[in-house]
Structures are given as C-alpha cells and as structure tokens.
C-alpha cells in the first residue's frame, strides 16, 4: 500500500491530480490542507521533553501510519520559490515524532518526493531542498522534479496533460 500526501493548498490542482494518477487501488491519499495541522508555533517546545500539545490534530498519527506502507509519496508544490508552507508544517512537526522514537531510517527508506514547479534555472534550490530527507542515507533517486517550463507549460497548465510527465511519474514510483 502506498500513502500519498499532497501539500498543495488548492483542491483539484496539479498535486491532487498527480496523487490520484499515482494511486492504485487500496492506496491512501491524504490532502494535508484538510488536516488543519497546527504549525510549530504558540507552544513551549514540549516536543523536546514530552508530547507536542498539538498531537490531537493527527500529524503524529500520520507519521505513525507511514510504517505500514510500502511507499510514502510526498507531493509538494513550489510557492514563491520554496516548498509550500503546508510541507514545512509537516516537516517541522516531525520533530515530535522523531525525537521519541528510533524510526528515522524506517520512515525515510519508504519515502519518495515529487516537487511541482516552474524552472530549475530560476529556482535551482527547490529540488535539492526536497532531497534533505535523504542526506547521509543510502537512498538514491528519491526526488522527482516536475519542471513545467521543460515542456513549455505555464502556471495554469495541467502537468498530466504532458505524456513525458505522466511517464516519469509512473517510472519514478515503480
Ligand atoms: C502562492 C503561490 C506561489 C507560487 N510561486 C511559484 C513560484 O515561485 N514558482 C513557480 O514555478 N510556481 C509557483 N507557483 C505555482 C505553483 O507551483 C503551481 O501552481 C503548482 O501547480 C501548484 O500546485 P497545485 O496545482 O497542486 O496547486 C505558485 C503558486 C502559488 C499559489
């Protein structure tokens, strides 16, 4: 079973479409915007010594759910040159999860990241930023950049209209 997590703030856009395209029967899709996840703010850093006060919002449970999955696919749009803030909320909330359990490798070994953006020339740091999970690990080729400009697409275009993108996404997750 794959777990696909989309980090776009928009319903029905490219990230949602990629998640739905990549999901097979029995896979689970989570639209992170719907979780109403609390950002790492307005707390006293309880996660370093105990439990994060925001656990009831389900982010901890989402990390927990990754263990049972064959693959976990994070689908991340670029907003203003960076991964979206929803992705950073998820990332930071991992502090609570990873500081209480020795599971980093067990999660990262299942992880695949797809980034949706315009141009590698204009924003060369986007794809490497998504690869931070894998620094110092043996896991290679875990980040796929869907670079719209490569196929002449503009901001409002549907990336799945391009056969090359569809093929790359399927091959990446095989
Ligand atoms: C606030 C905001 C900022 C964006 N900034 C960029 C950007 O800097 N570079 C870029 O290539 N695309 C940018 N985009 C376009 C998104 O990456 C693009 O629309 C992508 O398809 C978003 O995913 P979605 O279709 O799933 O919503 C931005 C979109 C939004 C909403």
Structural write-up:
The protein has one domain: Flavodoxin domain (Rossmann fold, 3-Layer(aba) Sandwich), CATH 3.40.50.360. 29% of the residues lie in helices and 18% in strands. It has six helices and six strands, in the order βαβαββααβαβα. Strands 1, 2, 3, 4, 5 and 6 form a six-stranded mixed sheet that branches. The model has no long low-confidence stretch (mean pLDDT 97). The structure holds flavin mononucleotide. Residues 8, 10, 13-16, 77-81, 116-118, 155 line the site of flavin mononucleotide (FMN).
Produce a short descriptive summary.
With 174 residues, this protein is of the alpha/beta class. It is 29% helix and 18% strand.
């Amino acid at each position: 079973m794959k777990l696909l997590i989309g980090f776009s703030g928009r319903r029905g856009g490219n990230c949602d479409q990629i998640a739905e395209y990549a999901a097979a029967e029995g896979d689970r899709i989570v639209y992170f915007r719907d979780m109403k996840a609390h950002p790492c703010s307005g707390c006293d850093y309880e996660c370093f010594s105990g439990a994060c006060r925001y656990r009831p919002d389900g982010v901890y449970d989402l990390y927990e759910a990754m263990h049972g999955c064959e693959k976990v696919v994070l689908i991340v749009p670029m907003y203003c040159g960076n991964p979206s803030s929803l992705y950073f909320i998820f990332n930071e909330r991992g502090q609570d999860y990873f500081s209480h359990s020795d599971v980093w490798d067990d999660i990262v070994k299942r992880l695949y990241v797809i980034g949706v953006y315009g141009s590698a020339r204009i924003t060369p740091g986007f794809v490497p930023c998504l690869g931070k999970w894998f620094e110092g690990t043996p896991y290679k080729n875990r980040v796929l950049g869907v670079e719209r400009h490569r196929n002449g697409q503009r901001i409002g275009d549907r990336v799945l209209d391009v056969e090359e993108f569809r093929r790359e996404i399927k091959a990446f997750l095989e």
